Amino acid sequence: MTMPSPTRDLTPEQAAAFEGWTANDLLAWGIERFDGTIAISAAGGVDGMALIDMAWAIDRHIRVFTLDTGRLPGETYALFEKVRERYGIEVEFVAPDAEAVGALLTEHGPNLMFRSPDLRLRCCDVRKVEPLKRKLATLDAWVTGLRRDQWKSRSKVQRVEIDTDHGGVVKLNPLVDWTLDQVWTYVREHGVPTHELFGHGYSSIGCGPCTRPVLPGEPERSGRWWWETNVDKECGIHCSVQLLGTPPDRERAAQV
């Protein structure tokens, strides 16, 4: 397989050709093509931890970043200390603009998210969306743990996407067709560190005030912004990608 130099010019047709590739194959391709300008986005979820383990087995210099919103549970920081100890990875913490956070708190108070979906999204924008934009401006590709079965808003996520909201950066979703059970099987079989809160009924990890344990039978992301109803369980960082068409065959992908 001939690899071109790292660029952001992947076409939708080329990206669609990766449907059907395994998670390991896609990670290996991305790491080679975007050498040094690709990073895994991890927030403490089991999917991100599985990806870190897979990618580290391919390249021990894999980069990992997390959005440090300033309101993460203490257990999230403890998990990233385990990442440092287990893999030797210096996780890149991306913080929001301090002045923007201060202005938000002054105007609306620290718990504005509970008052309306619009205010919650404004909080997410300041603490997550804008910091992510800054980070992705320095990268050519990023890797996420998105899966189609996580929530209805993610049902059409593709394995490789062109992230038009972030300057056309390439977005890799290696676990897109995995189930939650498959991810947990992987981390258990490989002894991957996981977030302590998963042992307390949580199934998705976000900011402390905005995440609760799930009840039996509830969807995986129902513990996120649980007071909101009839809205997508999203913060805005995964909403604007160029969805791709019918995938061509694997041989065409090999020419990308």
How would you characterize this protein structure?
The chain is an alpha/beta fold and 256 residues long. The protein has one domain: 3-Layer(aba) Sandwich (Rossmann fold), CATH 3.40.50. It contains eight helices and six strands. It has helices spanning 12-16, 23-33, 46-58, 74-87, 98-108, 117-136, 180-190, 250-253, and strands spanning 38-41, 63-67, 92-94, 141-143, 160-163, 169-172. A hairpin with a 5-residue loop joins strand 5 (160-163) and strand 6 (169-172). Helix 5 packs antiparallel against helix 6 (117-136). It starts with 11 loop residues before the first helix and ends with a helix.
CATH class: Alpha Beta
What strand order characterises the main sheet? Answer: 3-2-1-4-6-5
Q: Poorly predicted ranges (pLDDT <50, ≥5 residues)?
A: 1-6, 240-256
The CATH topology is what? Rossmann fold
Helix/strand/pairing category: alpha/beta
Net shape: globular
Give the full name of the CATH homologous superfamily: HUPs
